[in-house]
């Protein structure tokens, strides 16, 4: 049953749990929609329902990740592009609870010079005030990366300082080849700097192979400024979710892009249906179990 005020499940590209409300997840839409939105998702309903849509106004964005700040508001990760005539950068965007942009943070110029159009994806935040730190994942290799490695970025807010580490991608396994990259970064419960990383290929259906969730402990990494030789993170497989996607879909989708954990530690996954542009249109949104 559809009412006139129903908010559609379309172009979801990132998930985050609310720090206080166990039945709320936050999601974002990507550039398939001309307007960027923050969505409030009620996961106490069955099925879950998008109950609020908050526009992020001001300028062109391709929001691929969201993190709810402990003190209120959000950090967003907006993916840049290098197409001729485009001026959209990879940047962190800080908003208040109403979606008003309060601050934007670009990457260092030396790194921007190495960018491709496969940029920022997931984002996560730890701490508050003087200790607030934002982490972001870059989807695929940039010009200065070794083959099979991508960058994780760390931004210390009070110091206005970027540092980086390398993440080792799984090899391409699909018989139709394609690529493997990152699509989400989510802080794990329990304290510290342990994060879940979503790693996926760009293949669908019987060609899909890599749809996996890994754990990384970013407290064990030596973070270095761009231009230095970067430390490499270690990863541990938490779950291969290929079968989870297959069980719930008419065909395994390529874009597993959201992983959020609620305040009571339920794990939720979401796929991006690209606004049904060359896509069969499903949005998969489901819970695995409690952490």
Beta-strand percentage range: 35-45%
N-to-C SSE string, H for helix and E for strand:
EEEEEEEEHEEEEEEEEHEEE
Q: In terms of per-residue confidence, which ranges show pLDDT below 50 for 5 or more consecutive residues?
A: none
The proportion of residues forming helix, as a percent range, comes to under 10%
Q: How is the biggest beta sheet arranged?
A: 4 strands, antiparallel
First and last CA, distance:
33 Å
The class by helix and strand makeup works out as mainly beta
Q: What is the number of beta strands? A: 19
Structure, explained:
By secondary structure, the protein is mainly beta. It is built from 2 helices and 19 strands. The strands form 5 sheets. It has a 4-stranded antiparallel β-sheet with strand order 1-2-3-4, with no helix packed on it. Strands 5-6-7-8 form a 4-stranded antiparallel β-sheet, with no helix packed on it. The relative contact order is 0.15.
Q: Could you give a short description of this structure?
A:
By secondary structure, this protein is mostly beta strands. The protein is 4% helix and 43% strand.
What keyword list fits this structure?
291 residues; mainly beta; 4-stranded antiparallel β-sheet; 19 strands; 43% strand
How is the secondary structure organized here?
Elements: E1 12-17, E2 24-29, E3 36-42, E4 49-56, E5 63-68, E6 74-78, E7 91-95, E8 101-106, H1 109-112, E9 120-126, E10 133-138, E11 149-156, E12 161-168, E13 180-187, E14 194-201, E15 211-217, E16 235-240, H2 242-248, E17 256-261, E18 266-271, E19 285-290
Antiparallel strand pairs: 1-2, 2-3, 3-4, 5-6, 6-7, 7-8, 9-10, 10-11, 11-12, 13-14, 14-15, 15-16, 17-18, 18-19
């Amino acid at each position: 049953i559809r009412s006139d005020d129903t908010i559609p499940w379309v172009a979801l590209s990132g998930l985050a749990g609310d720090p206080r409300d166990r039945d709320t997840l936050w999601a974002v839409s990507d550039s398939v929609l001309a307007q960027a939105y923050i969505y409030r998702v009620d996961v106490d309903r069955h099925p879950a329902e998008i109950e609020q849509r908050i526009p992020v106004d001001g300028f062109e964005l391709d929001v691929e990740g969201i993190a709810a700040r402990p003190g209120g508001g959000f950090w967003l990760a907006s993916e840049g592009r290098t197409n001729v005539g485009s001026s959209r950068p990879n940047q962190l965007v800080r908003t208040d609870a109403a979606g008003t942009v309060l601050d934007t943070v670009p990457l260092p110029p030396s790194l921007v010079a190495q960018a491709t159009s496969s940029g920022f994806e997931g984002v996560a935040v730890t701490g508050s005030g003087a200790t607030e730190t934002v982490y972001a994942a870059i989807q695929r290799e940039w010009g200065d990366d070794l083959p099979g490695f991508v960058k994780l970025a760390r931004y210390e807010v009070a110091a206005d300082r970027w540092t980086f580490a390398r993440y080792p991608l799984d090899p391409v396994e699909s018989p139709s080849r394609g690529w493997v990259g990152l699509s989400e970064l989510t802080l794990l419960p329990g304290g510290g700097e342990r994060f879940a990383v979503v790693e996926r290929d760009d293949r669908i259906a019987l060609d899909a192979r890599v749809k996996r969730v890994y754990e990384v402990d970013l407290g064990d990494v030596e973070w270095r400024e761009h231009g230095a030789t970067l430390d490499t993170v270690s990863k541990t497989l938490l779950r291969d979710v290929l079968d989870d996607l297959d069980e719930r879909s008419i065909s395994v989708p390529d874009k597993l892009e959201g992983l959020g954990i609620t305040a009571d530690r339920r794990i939720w996954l979401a796929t991006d249906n690209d606004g049904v542009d060359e896509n069969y249109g499903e949005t998969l949104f489901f819970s695995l179990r409690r952490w």
